[in-house]
């Protein structure tokens, strides 16, 4: 006899003997049994967290140094308008930096096509029978500029290892350019030369210290070109703009009245270079070549700060509009339905 039958038999005997109605007692007992059966045992993980622990965990924010290091470890968004603005500003710095070297010795520290051709002419002149002028001083200056530029461009290999679009490389490379440019300003100052050539046959920066100023300026431009190559800007490496002029006047939307991003960025970069050369020449008239190079260091410091505030590269789930997240949620729903 099961439990329910025993209860009914006991209730019937008590009702007959003592005239006691225990139906209500039985109903209460049944309700208690049902409540015990439906009771859910909660695990410790179902308990609500302590408010004290929540306050402690929420108050733990990263320190300023940690947030700064995290910011430096991220990559910038090379497709944003801010990055294009930095590339245009780099063209302005190209004009600023190249003007003092050309004013001193008619050598472009950033445009090495002419220097390489001049080197070839000097070699041919040396081998010409009856030529007695040989390897002249302006040929040596062109060679120094070319080799120094290549050394600066080789420093871009560090960016290949670290990441050409990471802020730590961009800020570090900018600080390196500032250091080289400061060294060029000091060398130009202690060379004792005025830094202004009176003619093609009478260049400045002919002393070893003056040659060092030319070399450090060329290293700066080589490193800037290495940084610009990784930006993916329509301006290329932001140093030699011959190809940029070709791209501008070969653009199929050259005469379009609407906004064309690639054409407009190239045009602004080209005119920024011209404006930078004009500003540099005005500064040389006011404060001389060493002082102008010192001002260029300050302009490059602005670029270094600009890299820090450039927008971050978007994450993959942001690029695809959250499709990856929705796809994972759908796969989880499918697995739950299969289990059911």
TrEMBL record:
Chain positions covered by the region annotation Disordered: 28-59, 316-340
Compositional bias (Polar residues): 46-55, 329-340
Keyword list, A-Z: Membrane, Transmembrane, Transmembrane helix
Positions with biased composition (Basic and acidic residues): 316-328
Record keyword Ribonucleoprotein present: no
Ranges of Acidic residues composition bias in the record: 28-38
InterPro entries in the record: DUF1275 (IPR010699)
Annotated TM spans: 168-190, 205-223, 267-287
Entry protein name: Major facilitator superfamily (MFS) profile domain-containing protein
